[in-house]
Write a structure and sequence with these properties.
The structure is a single chain. The chain is of the alpha/beta class and 537 residues long. It has 19 helices and 19 strands. It has two domains: 2-280 and 516-536, Glycogen Phosphorylase B (Rossmann fold, 3-Layer(aba) Sandwich); 282-512, Glycogen Phosphorylase B (Rossmann fold), CATH 3.40.50.2000. It has helices spanning 21-35, 130-151, 167-178, 183-191, 211-217, 225-232, 238-245, 254-263, 282-285, 288-295, 300-319, 349-357, 374-389, 402-411, 429-435, 448-451, 470-492, 494-511, 514-536; strands at 2-5, 40-45, 53-56, 62-65, 76-86, 89-98, 106-110, 157-161, 194-197, 208-209, 236-237, 248-251, 273-275, 328-333, 361-366, 394-397, 414-417, 439-442, 458-460. Strand 5 (76-86) and strand 6 (89-98) form a beta hairpin. Helix 1 crosses helix 19, helix 2 crosses helix 3 and helix 14 crosses helix 15. The longest helix has 23 residues, at 470-492. It is globular. It starts with a strand and ends with a helix. Bound molecules: pyridoxal-5'-phosphate (PLP). Pyridoxal-5'-phosphate binds at residues 20-21, 24, 334-335, 400-402, 405, 427-430, 432.
């Protein structure tokens, strides 16, 4: 059995214990595992106040609220409680089971109990200070392993999705040392049980902690400074620890594999990083009428137009703006992180304004910034200002979440993506769009390097350029492709557009499904571990 650890799980819009792509990947992983009968359990945290609900104030600037939880009646009480030690105090965590959105069981730890001094520790995802984060990682990692033991589950492989979970490795080592192994024996045996998925190539996204804080909060879990330093360095880097605690690691696209291998090459004793490209759960993200039309080689344009109308109705409902169903609708919805350059297309006014004023293009944006990310919030504010200046042509939708993601990746005509290369590890929203025949229009970063057949299933721009003036270079390329290839096809050659939709759906359902991803995890990540273990024993 594989235990898949992740800080966040995006299973359903009504259960907002996720922030963005990482959580949606984890949710899609569980659903795909359940579909194909793989023996997998998820381990996470019950964030009772979720991540953030983000709206726009009178001045056009984002502000944060705690999201409303609807009904948690689908949580099942396992009857299991486990204890961890945080700042030398016992913290009890209740273990809930969620199997409502997927048949793969997800176990969630919850410290919101009357006996705990800090019941708020598991309230809010990715908020709070450094010590809180360490405490949350103790709950996920150490508490998670103890929960699996208390539940009596026989786990063969521990899969850490991102570095947040690495303290589970420290617990596995502690267990073995308690049974009499030396630290080195315990570390080696533990490594044979762990695989690790690394994510962001943005350095700030790779969390590191001072040893003083780790020791104070209780992450050492009985290990010494020297032993912890050997695993994560000093300061203790969670990604480095993931690489040293595992036998095999993976990056989330081919290009990200190259980037990650360069980024971490100086880390001694790290596991090799292979590339297993992300995929998305088809039944969650592909509209049923599109699936049907694609299977029957039916009228895709008509099916798409119905999804576009649903999006336009949602836009009208949320903003009062009425968009033109026949003009090209460009969508951009992602976490508002600055490297994703959400406002790039708005920066070339001489190109943009005539296209907007003539009504040939319309833009719909959505995205949340991290509550403490000023740069991301300023980027949102710029988009909001443009939406104010161009009513009915530029729209910003507040509080991006899975529900909006679903409507947008079904209803836009093209899906824009322009991260600063090579910082987008994968970029799964494009796979969702592509499955719906919403054509990708993206720089060659993340998954699109593998997926793109220019002019056949979507378009690239910028030719993978990396260097000075990347914004300027990409912006010119963007408008060139938009004006000379995309608009003429959209406006004058619907037959070719429909053909491209078919090609896009085929590429994404075959190459970029969570089903394919699960199979690769088993063939290339899990199986080598099992095989090596059998040889040893
Ligand atoms: C799919 C999804 C993401 C990930 O999209 P990227 O392309 O990686 O930016 C983030 N947030 C939500 C709500 C999603 O549905």
């Amino acid at each position: 059995m594989v235990a898949y650890f992740c800080m966040e799980f995006g299973l359903h819009p009504d259960f907002p214990i996720y922030s963005g792509g990482l959580g949606v990947l984890a949710g899609d992983y569980l659903k795909a595992a359940a579909d194909d009968g793989y023996p997998v359990v998820g381990v996470g945290i019950l964030w009772r106040k979720g991540y953030t609900a983000q709206y726009i104030n009178e001045q056009g600037y984002p502000y944060d609220l705690a999201p409303e939880f609807n009904n948690l009646s689908f949580l099942k009480d396992t009857g299991v409680k486990v204890q961890v030690t945080i700042k030398q105090q016992p913290v009890t965590c209740k273990v809930w089971l969620v199997d409502h959105f997927s048949n793969a069981p997800l176990y969630l730890l919850d410290a919101d109990l009357p006996e705990n001094k800090e019941p708020w520790l598991t309230h809010s995802l990715y908020r709070g200070n450094g010590d809180d984060r360490i405490a949350q990682e103790i709950i996920l990692g150490i508490g998670g392993v103890r929960a699996l033991r208390a539940l009596g589950l026989a786990v063969d492989i521990y899969h850490f999705n991102e570095g947040h979970a690495v303290l589970a490795g420290i617990e596995l080592i502690r267990e073995k040392m308690a049974a009499g192994l030396s630290f080195h024996q315990a570390l080696n045996a533990t490594r044979r049980q762990i695989v690790f998925t690394t994510h962001t190539p943005v350095p700030a996204g790779n969390e590191a902690h001072h040893h003083g804080a780790l020791a104070y909060v209780g992450a050492y879990n009985g290990l010494s400074y020297e032993q912890m330093k050997q695993i994560g360095g000093d300061p203790f880097n969670m990604t480095v620890a993931g690489l040293r605690l595992s036998t095999l690691s993976n990056a989330v696209s081919e290009l990200h594999g190259e980037t990650a291998r360069k980024m971490w090459h100086q880390v001694g004793d790290a596991s090799p990083i292979i590339a297993i490209t992300n995929g998305v759960h088809q039944d969650t993200w592909q509209a049923p009428d599109i699936a049907l039309a694609a299977a029957r080689r039916g009228n895709l344009i008509e099916a798409h137009q119905a999804n576009k109308q649903l999006l336009l109705a949602e836009i009208q409902h949320r903003t009062g703006q009425i968009l033109n169903p026949d003009a090209l609708l460009i969508g951009f919805a992602r976490r508002a992180a600055t490297y994703k350059r959400g406002d790039l297309i708005l920066q070339h006014k001489e190109e943009l304004l005539p296209l907007l004023e003539s009504g040939r293009i319309q833009l719909v944006f959505s995205g949340k910034a991290h509550p403490q990310d000023e740069g991301g919030k300023n980027m949102v504010a710029k988009i909001v200002a443009m939406a104010k200046a161009f009513p009915g042509k530029v729209v910003f939708l507040e509080n991006y979440d899975m529900a909006l993601g679903q409507i947008l990746t079904r209803g836009c005509d093209i899906w824009l993506n322009n991260p600063q290369r090579p910082l987008e590890a994968s970029g799964t929203s494009g796979m969702k769009a592509g499955m719906n025949g919403v054509l990708n229009f993206s720089t060659l970063d993340g998954w699109w390097v593998e997926g793109c057949r220019h002019g056949i299933n979507g378009w690239q721009f910028g030719d993978g350029y990396v260097g000075p003036n990347q914004d300027y270079h990409d912006l010119n390329a963007l408008y060139r492709v938009l004006k000379t290839e995309i608009l003429p096809t959209f406006e004058q050659d619907k037959a070719k557009w429909a053909q491209m939709m078919h090609a896009s759906i085929e590429t994404c359902t075959q190459q970029f499904s969570a089903r394919r991803m699960l199979k690769e995890y088993y063939d290339r990540l899990y199986w080598p571990l099992t095989a090596a273990e059998e040889k040893i024993s």
